[in-house]
Design goal:
This protein has 13 helices and eleven strands. By secondary structure, it is an alpha/beta fold. It has a seven-stranded mixed β-sheet with strand order 1-7-6-5-4-2-3, sandwiched between helices. A four-stranded antiparallel β-sheet has the order 8-9-11-10, covered by helices on one side. Helix 3 (61-74) packs parallel to helix 9. The longest helix is centred in the C-terminal third of the chain and has 20 residues, at 256-275. It is globular. It starts with 5 loop residues before the first helix and ends with a helix. It binds pyridoxal-5'-phosphate (PLP). Pyridoxal-5'-phosphate binds at residues 84-86, 110, 153, 157, 182, 184, 204, 206-207, 216, 218, 335.
Length: 391
């Protein structure tokens, strides 16, 4: 399968019909206890609990099928499933950091990542320095003798700056750091993080991989040097995903390419249309030529997904509420990556510490779902009318 195209591998990865009575999909194994036939077998299994089915918390064949599929798609030595995207992030940091260490984190990361660094990591004696997501080789100046890891997210949450991952990874590796990246936006289909120098790639599978807003799940895909460390960290933290959720993620994977292509096309059409609206100051979408890091996105990515940002001209919070409250097709709520369209008011200026965020007016985040894009434009047009009427 290694030589096949990603679309074909999505269809076949992690499946073994011959091992399961010919049925196309792997069964869902529900289980905690695993019975061993003898003391000898029990002791042998305990010597390496990651070698096979050992105890429910370490995974079942359903987990292993998803992990094998994602490791193959992302080009990793292995993948590990956890209970949420945030659990994948925290496990990735705990797998490489210990008391007294220092970590560099992009200023545009997902807000709960930041919260974890500022609270739990700080309490365990790990210091965090945030850096401008558009920084290049100058991040070397922030590296201290005790710096152990670099945490990237590209494009950034809410603001969508595209980072120069290969360059940053080279600088980090020259100083012996581990490179972690949150690749939730692109999925392994649109950005091959490990091939671009990342050591541990984390995904909120809750988003596009599950794809139907019906499960919480996280994945960590690592290279040979980091996979065992990640497995041990996840085991030590007691984190495990439910088998039904792994099944939903496996099912989501099979249609990931077709869904992403529609999300991409609709988001691109909306981004272009919104750019020309008189109410809009700027659209934050990596495929737009003036977007920060656009040329890096062109160089490194295989496309865009359906999530992007919009900066409005100055309008009152009441006017924005009037616009959003009346939308019929866009829902308001957290997460994204499902089939449904979403919109959210965002406040990136409240999160930044290294690279202050200046916007002309209120910010929105839009997820283009699988609805017809002309219907989505109509819904937004009516919203803009309410926005202007409310001033
Ligand atoms: C949603 C999200 C997460 C967290 O995922 P959960 O599955 O909700 O825990 C992590 N990173 C990014 C970029 C996200 O958007």
């Amino acid at each position: 399968m290694k030589n096949r195209s990603p679309q074909t591998r999505l269809v076949h990865a992690g499946r073994d019909p011959r091992g399961q009575h010919g049925l196309v999909n792997p069964p869902v194994y529900h289980g905690s206890t695993v019975l061993f036939p003898s003391v000898d077998a029990l002791e042998k299994a305990s010597a390496d609990p990651f070698a096979g089915v050992y105890y429910g918390r370490y995974g079942t064949p359903t987990h292993f099928a998803l992990e094998a599929a994602v490791a193959e798609l992302a080009g990793g030595a292995g993948a590990v499933t956890v209970s949420s995207g945030l659990a994948a992030i925290t496990a990735s940091l705990f797998s490489v950091l210990e008391q007294g260490d220092h970590v560099l984190v992009a200023d545009s990361v997902y807000a709960p990542t930041r919260k974890f660094c500022d609270t739990m990591l700080a309490r365990t004696g790990v210091q965090t320095t945030y850096f401008d997501p558009m920084a290049g080789a100058e991040i070397a100046e922030l590296i201290r003798p005790e710096t152990r890891a670099l945490f990237l997210e590209s494009p950034g949450s809410l603001t969508f700056e595209v980072q120069d991952v290969p360059l940053l990874a080279d600088v980090a590796h020259a100083h012996g750091l581990s490179v972690i990246m949150d690749n939730t936006w692109a999925t392994p289909l649109l950005f091959q993080a490990l091939a671009h120098g990342v050591d541990i790639c984390v995904h909120s599978a809750t988003k596009y991989i599950v794809g139907h807003a019906d499960a919480m799940l996280g994945l960590l895909v690592s290279n040979q040097d980091h996979h065992k460390k990640v497995r041990r960290a996840v085991a030590a933290l007691g984190n495990c995903a439910g088998p039904d959720d792994c099944y939903l993620a496996l099912r989501g994977l099979r249609t990931l390419d077709v869904r992403l292509r529609r999300h991409e096309a609709s988001a691109a059409a909306l981004a272009e249309w919104l750019s020309a609206r008189p109410e809009v100051a700027r659209v934050l979408h990596p495929a737009l030529e003036n977007h920060p890091g656009h040329e890096i996105w062109v160089r490194d990515f295989h496309g865009a997904s359906g999530l992007f940002g919009v900066v409005l001209k100055p309008y009152s919070p009441q006017a924005v509420a009037a616009m959003l409250d009346g939308l019929e097709l866009f829902g308001m709520g957290f997460s994204w990556g499902g089939y449904e369209s979403l919109i959210l008011p965002t406040h990136p200026e409240t999160l930044r510490t290294a690279a202050p965020w200046h916007a002309e007016g209120p910010c929105l985040r839009i997820h283009a779902g699988l609805d017809n894009v002309d219907d989505l434009k109509e819904d937004l047009t009516a919203g803009f009318e309410r926005l202007c009427a409310a001033g």
